[in-house]
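Researcher: We're teaching a course module on how sequence relates to structure. For the next exercise, students receive a sequence and then see the predicted structure as tokens, so they can try to spot secondary structure elements on their own. Here is the exercise chain.
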Amino acid sequence: MSTTTREGQRLTAFHEAGHAVMAELCGQHITKVEIEGDSEHSGSVQSLRFEPDPAEALSAEEQAASVEARLKCVLAGTVAENMVSGVDRWDESSEDLDLAVRLAMRLVDDCEDVLPLLEDVREELRRELEENWGAVEALADELLARTSLDGAEVRKLLTPLLSTDFR
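Model: And here is the predicted structure for the students to work with:
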């Protein structure tokens, strides 16, 4: 999506805010959120990812929960953008959708189950983002004003606004 227009910037801000809010709700450590991108990306959310210690092997349930949390973080940008634009669709050319499909394949046994899983996750995300919409809006507004925030600034802004049901 182009961020050269004001509406494009606004949609990008909500897209990245959706990613960031869900990442915070899922316990990721955000290091930066920006809406100024390069020729291939109009914005980004950066977070620290730690590989599990091999001595602390995750159970199958913990691995699935980790993949599901990552899937939610990946799809949250598109869901937030759709909520703002009023257009309820998938962008088939999106890197987010490509990654979401690959993550979903790790959660289901049959490729026929990928789309229904993605639809279920999208509906769950819509509910979770609606419950935390004040945080999404506040972060999007701040991104439009400043274009980039570091992790500490994001946490300071979001912490009082996030639903305690998810933290």
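Model: If you want an answer key for the exercise: The longest strand covers residues 29-34. The chain has six helices and three strands.
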